[in-house]
Amino acid sequence: MGPPASVRILSLLSALAAAPVLADGTPAEVRMTRPESAAESAIAIDPAQPQRVVAGTMGPLQQVRMHRSGDGGATWSQVELPLGNTCCHPAVAWSSDGRFTYAAALAHCATFRCELLFYRSGDGGASWTDLERDTPGNPRRTVSFSADREALHVDASPASPYRDRIYLPYHSANVMQLARSASFGSAWSAVSLSPAADELGLGGDVATNRAGTVYYAWPAFNSRTIRLRKSIDGGASFGASTVVAATEAAFSFAIPAQPGRRVRMAVSAAADLTAGPHADAVYLAWSDTTGPVQEDPVANHARIRVAASHDGGASWILTTPHRTDDAATVDRFHPALAVSPDGTLHLTFYDTRQVADRSGVDLYYSFSTDGARTWSQARRITTVSSPFINDLFQLGDYNGLDAVGGNLLASFSDNRSESGGSGDSVDVYVARIAPGGGAAGVGRLYGDRGLPGPPLTVARGVQAGDLDLAWAGACAGASDYAVYEGTLGEPRSKTPLRCSTGGATAATITPSSGARFFLVVPRSTSAEGSYGHTSDGAERPADPGACLPQSIAVCP
């Protein structure tokens, strides 16, 4: 017999009262999936309009489900993929300008070999039939008939000759594969990597640098190594593999929080696309044990390892991004990496320190501002520990993380009981994380040179003589905007028309007479960001009469 209704209601009210909120009053932890029974997720933020977010989850109801948010992850709606019959391993991404959203999923699996399906959305994830514009009646592509554990990556570098090329790494019978598309997902080609025994693996990932170099990393289980191959021709061919690091574990290992499904070896990859001090750095993260793998889950102890290369993969710095003095009593696993536009490297992972027998988990967050040489103290993100539930997928194989502008979103499996009781509730949550790190200063407006997004627009106002300005926001630290006016053809003539819009991304102004130009400059409480670029790509300088001192942060 359960607790009386009054106790259950009080428990629920207490949980709601304790739920964290952001500065705007919206929740920091949001349950994304309904009904129950969902695990394993991927998440991606629109690079042009960061309030638009898509995510994919394995479940509910044994299908890959898509989700979309128009308010930066505060609220979510569920969307179905066309034709159905999917099962697992969702992956998501955006094109570099936010025009398209992409999703991948597995289907029709038998003995660990599945169909690999790809989908495209042209309306921000509201529907997933955009490929029918190329092939009427066919809203998806079958990339492979023998695939498992895929990931999804888009080359978003403005300087890359392969910008907007889509990469799908996966394995077929543990031979690493890479599918790629130069047609926004309409057509695909593939390359197979070496089938040699010491190269066999699973759980690979891809990152690309500013020049479009492809870094393909994966755990090779026979040799117990993290391997890397590079391509300088857009994934058409790869050089010989190199060893990034040795591992203790091989294919998978059991711990108290994941004894049945086990923690699968997998890599999360990211690269720094900024022009900052760690430009083109490549980062890899994976779960490993602290010693040889044992059959008893209690005897294994999980940790996170991060490798960083600042010389194109020629050498690697290896770090542990969390405490190590409690390694015998705390497990860490399922890492996810993302690099924000200021060059900060972000990391989330499961941590068992709140549960004495290591069977429950919380999501923790750490960051590095020096190229993964050192790490911040890990911070607990979840306010309720996720208890152990002994079902088929347990906590799945991976979680999601993405960073665009000041938005940092993590998606993760969570078994908390929302009623405050002890009942099972297998769900996927989204955490809206206040990011650490960050360079001083403010970035640029979206739509500026090399920063995808809608440009600043000017339209006639309702009142005669007024003009309505509108823009898409800014990257890196902007909390407000200033509006400048000048004489057309004389860039240095700009003077402040309005030093604040109250944080709004629109303003109605009354211009001076004559041929005029208008400039919107992002600002914080203490500095202004970019004034745009000259025709040769140089930053325009601030003027003596500026609203605030200029301090420009790094953006992609």
CATH topology of the domain at 247-405: Neuraminidase
- Uncertain ranges: 1-18
Total number of helical segments? Answer: 1
CATH uppermost class of the domain at 247-405: Mainly Beta
- β-sheet strand percentage: 35-45%
Please state the CA-atom Rg, rounded to the nearest Å: 24 Å
What topology, given as strand order, has the largest sheet?
1-30-29-28
What gap, in angstroms, lies between the N and C termini?
Answer: 57 Å
Secondary structure tally: strands: 36
Query: Could you describe the largest sheet, including whether it forms a barrel?
Result: 4 strands, antiparallel
Structural class: mainly beta
- Estimate the global geometry from the Cα principal axes: globular
Estimated helix fraction = under 10%
Which whole number gives the mean pLDDT? 89
**What is the second-level CATH architecture of the domain at 247-405?**
6 Propeller
Describe, in short, the structure shown.
The protein is mainly beta and about 550 residues long. The protein has one helix and 36 strands. The protein is globular.
Notable traits:
556 residues, mainly beta, Neuraminidase, Immunoglobulin-like, four-stranded antiparallel sheet, 36 strands, 3% helix, globular
What does this molecule look like?
With 556 residues, the chain is mainly β. Among the domains are: 247-405, Neuraminidase, CATH 2.120.10; 442-556, Immunoglobulin-like. It contains one helix and 36 strands. It has one helix at residues 5-18, and strands spanning 29-31, 39-45, 53-58, 64-69, 77-79, 86-94, 101-110, 113-121, 140-147, 153-154, 166-172, 175-181, 189-192, 205-208, 214-220, 225-231, 242-246, 252-255, 258-264, 267-271, 282-289, 302-309, 317-319, 332-339, 345-351, 362-368, 379-380, 400-404, 407-414, 427-432, 457-460, 467-470, 480-487, 495-498, 506-509, 516-523. It has a four-stranded antiparallel beta sheet, with no helix packed on it. Strands 2-3-4-5 form a four-stranded antiparallel beta sheet, with no helix packed on it. A hairpin with a 4-residue loop joins β15 and β16. It is globular. Residues 1-18 have low confidence and may be disordered.
